[in-house]
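Quiz preparation item.
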């Protein structure tokens, strides 16, 4: 796998799915494209989300990937951990930053022998269209250095032209409020974004539905954002990534991002 690009979002492999994904919830919508402020699509709060796992409004879903993190170590047959420089060259990304216990994945950023060590990884599965679900929380960061993010990244590494969907991103806010979702697209890294008035230190179930016609983001079972700009919708296989990114070369204390489960579905009806 090539060296991390831009924020270090990375992906690669192939498998076509068809359908939608589910993601975070709520708040104000803002958007920008080529530096111009624009609506981030349709802001839809309070609408019913997709139904039980394996079923969703308007179609049935087949699960093609799942990790419930019920073992004692990272399953590297499902995930490819990064091993290289950190985001923007800050510190290092190492598999040692990950641990699995008590049904949870944990990725921890801390100073190790004077070097900031954190982690990131991507699914070995790549997919085009489908539904992604995950449950996540991130510790507060009194240093304001780290950002927890769960995203999709083009398997061919052709960023930004082939897109990036940041379903959950805390940013560097020390108290992890608000949360954000971003969609990057086009050769000039145009983007839309959504602001979620939610506390990222608490557990949230996020979902993304990705179809050829629309991206829909849910948080905690509520549809928060729908984006239907054809130019912004990726058309190539992406992989799902979990990252705790560093935005400076050093930090104070330790910060952990936890994930309870990850599931990917394709629409079959």
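Solution:
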């Amino acid at each position: 796998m090539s060296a991390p690009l831009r924020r270090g979002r990375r992906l690669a492999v192939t498998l076509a799915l068809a359908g939608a994904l589910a993601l975070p919830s709520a708040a104000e919508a803002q958007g920008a494209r080529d530096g111009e402020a624009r609506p981030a699509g349709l802001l839809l709060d309070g609408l019913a989300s997709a139904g039980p796992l394996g079923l969703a409004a308007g179609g049935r879903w087949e699960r093609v990937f799942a990790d419930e993190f019920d073992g004692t170590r990272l399953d590297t047959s499902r995930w490819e951990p990064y091993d290289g420089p950190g985001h923007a060259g800050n510190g290092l990304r190492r598999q040692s930053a990950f641990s699995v216990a008590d049904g949870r994945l944990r990725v921890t950023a801390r100073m190790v022998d004077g070097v900031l060590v954190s982690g990131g990884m991507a699914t070995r599965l790549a997919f085009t269209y489908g539904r992604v679900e995950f449950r996540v929380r991130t510790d507060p960061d009194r240093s304001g250095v780290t950002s927890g993010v769960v995203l999709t990244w083009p398997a061919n590494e052709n960023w930004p032209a082939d897109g990036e969907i940041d379903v959950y991103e805390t940013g560097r806010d020390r108290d992890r409020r608000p949360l954000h979702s971003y969609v990057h697209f086009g050769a000039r890294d145009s983007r839309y974004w959504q602001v979620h008035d939610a506390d990222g230190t608490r557990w949230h179930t996020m979902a993304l539905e990705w179809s050829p016609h629309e991206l829909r983001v849910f948080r905690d079972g509520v549809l928060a954002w729908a984006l239907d700009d054809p130019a912004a919708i990726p058309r190539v296989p992406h992989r799902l990534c979990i990252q705790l990114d560093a935005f400076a070369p050093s930090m104070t204390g330790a910060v952990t991002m936890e994930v309870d489960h990850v599931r990917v579905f394709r629409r079959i009806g």
